[in-house]
Every structure is written in C-alpha cells, then in structure tokens.
TrEMBL record:
Keyword Cell membrane part of the UniProt annotation: yes
Biological process (GO), any one: amino acid transport
Similarity comment: family membership: Belongs to the binding-protein-dependent transport system permease family. LivHM subfamily.
Lineage: Bacteria, Bacillati, Cyanobacteriota, Cyanophyceae, Synechococcales
A Pfam family reported for this protein in Swiss-Prot or TrEMBL: BPD_transp_2
Transmembrane segments: 12-35, 67-87, 99-117, 123-142, 154-178, 213-233, 265-288, 300-328, 349-370
Protein name: Branched-chain amino acid ABC transporter permease
C-alpha cells in the first residue's frame, strides 16, 4: 500500500506541474489557435524572477524571507504577462491565421530569450533601453506627420540599424566609464538554485510514506489557478468576451467587442500562467536557460490529448500523463506484475525515465489515431488574418 500511495501521489504531483504549465497553453493555443513555442521560455523567466525575488528577501531574515514565494508568484505573473503583451503586439498579431509562420517566429523568440538570460547584464539593459528610446521616440515624433505612413518602410530600414549602432556605442562607452561589469552577466549559462521557504521543506507523514510540502503546495497552487481561470472565463465580463471571440470572431467584432484587446488580454493571461508555472518548477530543483525546453513538449501533449480549448480535458490529460510517466518510469507496478515474466521484462525495459517518456508518447500517438480531437473535443478557433 505504501508503494502504491507513493506512486499515486508522485503521479498526481507530476500531473499538477504539467497542468500548471499547460494552463497557459490551453488558453493561448486552445482559445486563440496560436502555437507559441516560446511558452517554455516564459516558464523559465518566471523561474528566474522567483530567484531574483528570493535574493531580494534574503536580507530580511526569517520569518519575512520565508514569505518571498507569494511575492514571487505575483512578480512572475506580472513579468511574463507584460512580455506576453509585447510578443502579441509586436509579432503575433501580424501572423494570426498563419500557424507555420507563428510557430517559426515564436521558436525564434524562444532562442532569443534563452540567449538573453545567458547574456543579460547592466550594459545590455542600457543598450536595449537606449535603442527603444531612440527608435520608438523617433517613431512617436514622426508619426504625427500626415505623410508618415508613406515613409514608414524607409523609417524602419534606416532607424533600426542607426538606433542599434548609437545604443551599442553609447552603452559600451558608458559601461566602461562607470564600470558596469561589462563582461559579467547577471545569471550566465549555469543553473540557478531556488531554495524553498523553510515552511515548505518538511514532509507530511502518511502511513509509511511522507508527502513533501513543496509538492503539496504546487498541487494546491494548481487547484487555485484552475478555479481562478474557470471563474474568469465563465463569470467575468472579459471572460465572456474571450469566449465570444473564440466562437465567432467576426460577429463579436460586429457587436462592438474589441477583438484586438481580447487577443492581447488572452495572450497576457496565458503568458502570466506560464510564469506562475515557472515559479512552481523552481521549487523542485535548479533552473537554467534550457528549463523551458524540458516542459514544452509535455505541455503541448496535455493540451492536444485533453482537447483543444477544454479546461477539463487539460486536467484529465495532465493527471493521466503525469501518472503514466511516473508509474512506468519508476516501475511502481512491480508489486502487482512482478510475478508475470513478460510484463516484468516489459516494464524493466521502460523503467528508465527517458524510455518511459518514449512509451508515453507512443501511447499518445496511438490514442490520437482513434480520437484526433482529444478526450473532450471542441471546435477550435481559426483567427482571420
């Protein structure tokens, strides 16, 4: 019983992490039809935000420093939601209805964010700030001219390299003068450790097994997020607008619903949930620039298997995939099937975590052959270009 209880709880905890990571995708991919390959990097940024908040609270000492996790959750949501708005307004809104281009563009953004975390320093922040000030400042001034639309193309061609050159020169000179640690990145390529608060480091005894408080916290956090998203989509005015645009974008626009604002809000919420997922993942182990890549495939599988746009489908799929990953990878069924030679050899072969994931993917592909729309099918949304 203890072995089965351990298998059940660990499978549920893995499923909770997957569900928390997939909630944002269920909104962005399920409701907007956008394949966001940078979703994993938003999780990674949420984890790094948690690390920054933790280091900020450390000098306060206990018990105040133990409360950093609640502020980290808020900060991670805000940071990634704002980045999601920037991505939607700057890239995604030009690619609605073009899934291949969206996939390639967001994949490029994911690579940029990975390198950004490895290289970010004070000088880089100064360079980016100067570039934005020069480019967008010039755009704001020239956009007041009545003939700006005719010269917009030339403006972009000229101002982007000019602003970048000025920002690099001024930023590097300023960094050298004020000794802003030109060659010292904030994080670097190495992993960053995030220590759970003291009150989350213990275990809850349950029979012969102990439940880690950190994983219990993640399960509770996942439940709160699911309830919050359900309430928002079904009980709030903006949730109603999101569901309206999902069902019929053209008719919603005719009824006066600001569809572009709905797109931006939906992407911001999905990205913010990825940041919360990153904060939860940071409690389980070290985080690095490639942290998001470890979850992006599994989270897409959760959304696809559960049914695009169905919250209950994502819940069932996350728990099913999480349980399957742990039970197969840890061979938790050995007390039951250990006496059957054929099954014993089969589970021994797939007991490695990597091979367990291969078997789970095979099962998912087989399942989708019979139910290509997922467990709970629902008509998705094709956004007009």
């Amino acid at each position: 019983m203890d072995a089965l209880l351990e298998a059940f709880f660990n499978g549920i905890s893995i499923g909770a992490v997957l569900l928390l990571a997939a909630l944002g995708l269920a909104i962005v991919f399920g409701l907007m039809g956008v394949i966001n390959m940078a979703h994993g990097e938003f999780m990674m940024l949420g984890a790094y935000t948690t690390s920054v908040v933790q280091n900020t609270f450390k000098p306060l000492g206990e018990p105040l420093s133990g409360l950093y996790i609640f502020f980290a959750l808020i900060a991670a949501f805000i940071v990634t939601a704002l980045l999601g708005v920037v991505l939607e307004r700057g890239v995604i809104r030009f690619l609605y209805g073009r899934p291949l281009e969206t996939l390639l563009a967001t994949w490029g953004v994911s690579l940029i964010l990975q390198q950004f975390v490895r290289s970010i320093s004070w000088v880089m922040v100064l360079n980016i700030g100067l570039f934005c000030f020069l480019f967008f400042g010039a755009q704001a001034i020239l956009s007041r001219r009545p003939n700006f639309e005719r010269i917009r193309g030339w403006f972009v061609i000229i101002m982007i390299p000019l602003s970048a050159a000025i920002a690099l020169i001024v930023g590097n000179i300023t960094g050298s003068i004020f000794q802003l640690a030109v060659t010292r990145p904030w994080f670097g390529a190495q992993n960053v450790n995030v220590a759970a608060p003291i009150w989350l480091r213990g275990r809850l005894p349950l029979g012969g097994y102990q439940l880690p408080y950190a994983r219990l916290f993640i399960i509770v956090l996942t439940i709160v997020c699911v309830i919050g998203i359900y309430w928002f989509l079904n009980k709030s005015a903006w949730g109603l607008r999101i569901r309206s645009v999902t069902q019929n974008r053209s008719m919603s626009a005719c009824l006066g619903i600001p569809t572009q604002t709905v797109d931006m809000l939906t992407f911001a919420i999905g990205s913010g949930l990825a940041g919360i997922a990153g904060c939860a993942v940071a409690l389980l182990g070290p985080v690095g620039p490639n942290t998001g890549q470890n979850f992006i495939v599994d989270t897409f599988m959760v959304v696809v298997v559960g049914g695009v746009g169905k919250l209950v489908g994502s819940i069932v799929a996350a728990m099913t995939i999480g349980m399957a990953n742990y039970i197969i990878g840890s061979y938790a069924l050995k007390p039951i099937v250990g006496g059957i030679p054929a099954l014993d050899n089969f589970f021994n072969f797939f007991s490695d975590p990597s091979m367990a994931k291969v078997l789970v993917f095979i099962l998912i592909v087989t399942f989708l052959q019979f139910k290509p729309a997922g467990m709970f099918p629902q008509k998705g949304r094709t956004v007009d270009a």
